[in-house]
Amino acid sequence: MIRAISALVLCIAVWLIGCAASQPIEPNPIGKALLGKSKQALVACAGNPLEETKTAEGTVLTYYKEAPMFEESFSFSKGSRSGVHHGCWAHLLMGDDRVVGVEYRSAPRSVDATDHCEEIFHTCVQ
């Protein structure tokens, strides 16, 4: 009986962890506006990517933006308290030298930091 209850508790824990695992975050309006842009236009407005990876689907350009230090702390009573160090990874899939896919991933995944990804490309859509 105890073994069955332990197995049930374990299954529930695994199920909850599986539900909590984050999925890639859909890009906001700026991310969607990048679709169709050339690599040359992206480099001109957002700078060189941190990494370029060739895949079967095309080339993935990887960008990262970290939160400023002041954003990671907040005032608390008579002092301040440190917050979570966070940022955002942007992965752009290129096909025929054009953006065909955009994916944002917050780091850590428990924090929504997609606004930092949008900041990388805000000059690309003006």
Q: Give the structural class.
A: alpha+beta
The total beta strand count reads: 6
Any idea what the radius of gyration is?
A: 19 Å
Q: Indicate how many domains the architecture comprises.
A: 1
Low-pLDDT residue spans: 6-11, 13-22, 70-74
Broad shape: globular
Question: N- to C-terminal separation?
Answer: 65 Å
How much helix is in the residues?
Answer: 25-40%
The amount of beta strand, in percent, is 25-35%
The helix/strand series, from N terminus to C terminus, equals: HHHEEEEEEH
The main β sheet shows up as:
4 strands, antiparallel
The overall pLDDT, averaged over residues, is 72
Number of distinct helices:
4
Describe the strand arrangement of the main beta sheet, using strand numbers. 1-2-5-6
Task: Reconstruct the topology from this structure.
Layout lengths: L1 H19 L8 H5 L5 H8 L4 E4 L4 E8 L6 E4 L2 E4 L4 E9 L2 E10 L6 H8 L5
Antiparallel strand pairs: 1-2, 2-5, 3-4, 5-6
What are its keywords?
126 residues, four-stranded antiparallel sheet, 4 helices
